[in-house]
Amino acid sequence: MARHSQTEVAVLGALSTGSMTGYEVRRAITEVLGHFWHESYGQIYPCLAALEQSGAVRRSGRGRTSGTVFQITPAGEDRLRALLAEPHTSPPARNGLLLRLFFGAHLADGEAQHLLQQARDRASTALDEYARIRDESVVEHGRSREQALREVTLSFGEHVARAQLTWAQESLATLAALDAPHAQGAPRARG
């Protein structure tokens, strides 16, 4: 699925929960999907214009913040269902932390460890946030399909954060073991 189509999914998905301004669409995406998806205003407003032109959304007046309110149309609901049914393709990975670590031999002493400590701390914070979200979620007897699917996405975040935490801790231990002989006066190998 092309990046543009995924923006459509995010925008149409947000509007499927109710009419809102472009600002409110961005806020809904940030607050609800922000743990695994983001869109900028520069992506949302052109997308809204294209969706309006195609008939997938329509303007329904002015909002509280003086912005134009958009509403999903039946054609937009059909478009959302079609986009959601398309096969998912992942873009090539781009991980700035791994890029820095791969070339980390050029970093000053301790900088790689500092990067890993930051990654460890971010993963730990994410796990705390996911626990808070899970605690706030009301799991009812016979929960809805929507609740179950949202729980699945929360579970993914938890698994990824735990894996990142474990990886960061193991990586810190690996670097500490390399530094141990250096601390005892032996020359440190670079490379």
From TrEMBL:
It holds the Pfam family Vir_act_alpha_C. Gene3D superfamilies: 6.10.140.190, Winged helix-like DNA-binding domain superfamily/Winged helix DNA-binding domain. Residues 11-81 form the Transcription regulator PadR N-terminal domain. InterPro entries: Tscrpt_reg_PadR_C (IPR018309), Tscrpt_reg_PadR_N (IPR005149), WH-like_DNA-bd_sf (IPR036388), WH_DNA-bd_sf (IPR036390). Residues 94-175 form the Transcription regulator PadR C-terminal domain. Signal peptide: none annotated. This is PadR family transcriptional regulator. The lineage of its organism: Bacteria, Bacillati, Actinomycetota, Actinomycetes, Micrococcales.
